[in-house]
Amino acid sequence: MAERRFGVGYALAPKKQRSFIQESLVNLARSRGIDLVRIDTDRSLADQGPFDCVLHKLYGDDWKLQLAEFRVKNPNAVILDAPEAIERLHNRISMLQVVSELKIEHESNTFGIPKQIVIYDKQTLFDRQAWEGLKFPVIAKPLVADGSAKSHKMALVFNHDGLDNLKPPIVLQEFVNHGGVIFKVYVVGEYVKCVKRKSLPDVSEEEKLGSLDGLMSFSQISNLANNERTDDKYYKMMQLDDTEMPPQSFITDIARGLQQAMKLNLFNFDVIRDARFGNRYLIIDINYFPGYAKMPGYETLLTDFFCDIVQKREKDGVESTGLDSYEVLSCDDEVRKL
Ligand SMILES: O=P(O)(O)O[C@@H]1[C@@H](OP(=O)(O)O)[C@H](OP(=O)(O)O)[C@H](O)[C@H](OP(=O)(O)O)[C@H]1OP(=O)(O)O
Ligand SMILES: Nc1ncnc2c1ncn2[C@@H]1O[C@H](COP(=O)(O)OP(=O)(O)O)[C@@H](O)[C@H]1O
Ligand SMILES: [Mg+2]
Ligand SMILES: [Mg+2]
């Protein structure tokens, strides 16, 4: 009998395609029965395929419409992930609301989000009442997180003088000292991996009082080292060696909780450890389909995941949907889980 193969279509921006669709991933997936196929975004998605699974990170109403049409024509294909579920992450307020709703108990650690407010116009920005309970320094973040360079432009604001330069709509979030290290937790289906990255340094009491400009701009601080990030080397170079990791079981519980609440398979979240307490963790950012290729061994991980997805779909006995050209399963049964 011919080997059964599966088609995974991907629709990604050119930069994402370059970083994620590497030959090593394509070859490994192919050897296990998964064909990664580029979706031509200049043509209708519904006219392409057949695909057992569609992997995507594109923005906008037109793309949502295309996915909806595709879903009608191919009800059995898996869309990773549903655009309605991803949309929550395009707004920095709705993104973190889900964290506040999680119910997870852990013997010695707690988690939450930093204090924050949303400002829609300049007038409210200078209204001290709107600020009640929020202390300087704060980080000003664009409300919209739509993947544009603009949506990553942040400012650390030390005092009221710094507010002049801000352009609402923005989120003002209390800056929390965290030892200059951020934990990035990558989730791929059931797999959870936490890594350390360089973050903003702590702000001293003198700096809080003495900053002349009142504001310091920055962007994508944890992504500044673009070179090889095989973790041992990167940790040494960035002097991250000494920072203790958060407990894996705690992080995994949060990841699972977020995954279930958000109904997403592919995301990461940024966590900092509040230096005032040492056992309090704050989630500050959640990203859809992040830079997985930075993780050593991402090819195996993602291939395992694709196999898992298409096998589950087979096992659930969903009727075939014009995907007949793919025959015989060749994925290994094994899927790594933490
Ligand atoms: O490009 P990369 O590999 O640095 O990945 C970016 C992510 O970096 P990370 O994996 O968290 O270190 C990055 O995470 P941060 O927001 O920097 O925490 C975003 O997920 C970014 O996507 P977008 O611009 O928000 O749509 C991601 O960018 P895209 O690759 O999706 O454009
Ligand atoms: N509340 C905070 N306290 C301290 N540092 C923060 C806080 N929020 C963000 N940062 C720092 O700013 C960086 C960018 O913020 P983040 O919300 O992750 O935006 P982006 O989506 O651009 O990654 C983080 O990686 C971290 O270094
Ligand atoms: Mg971030
Ligand atoms: Mg982000």
Automatic annotation (TrEMBL):
GO terms for biological process: inositol trisphosphate metabolic process. 1D-myo-inositol 1,3,4,6-tetrakisphosphate binds at residue 57. It catalyses: 1D-myo-inositol 3,4,5,6-tetrakisphosphate + ATP = 1D-myo-inositol 1,3,4,5,6-pentakisphosphate + ADP + H(+). Its cofactor is Mg(2+). The keyword Kinase applies. 1D-myo-inositol 1,3,4-trisphosphate binds at residues 16, 152, 184, 287, 291. SUPFAM superfamilies: Glutathione synthetase ATP-binding domain-like (SSF56059). GO terms for cellular component: cytoplasm. Mg(2+) 2 binds at residues 285, 287. Keywords: ATP-binding, Kinase, Magnesium, Metal-binding, Nucleotide-binding, Transferase. Pfam families: Ins134_P3_kin, Ins134_P3_kin_N. Mg(2+) 1 binds at residues 270, 285. Residues 106-307 form the Inositol 1,3,4-trisphosphate 5/6-kinase ATP-grasp domain. GO terms for molecular function: ATP binding; inositol-1,3,4-trisphosphate 5-kinase activity; inositol-1,3,4-trisphosphate 6-kinase activity; inositol-3,4,5,6-tetrakisphosphate 1-kinase activity; magnesium ion binding. ATP binds at residues 92, 141, 173-184, 199. The keyword Plastid does not apply. Binds 2 magnesium ions per subunit. Residues 8-86 form the Inositol-tetrakisphosphate 1-kinase N-terminal domain. Its EC number is 2.7.1.134. Monomer. Belongs to the ITPK1 family. Kinase that can phosphorylate various inositol polyphosphate such as Ins(3,4,5,6)P4 or Ins(1,3,4)P3. This is Inositol-tetrakisphosphate 1-kinase. The lineage of its organism: Eukaryota, Viridiplantae, Streptophyta, Embryophyta, Tracheophyta.
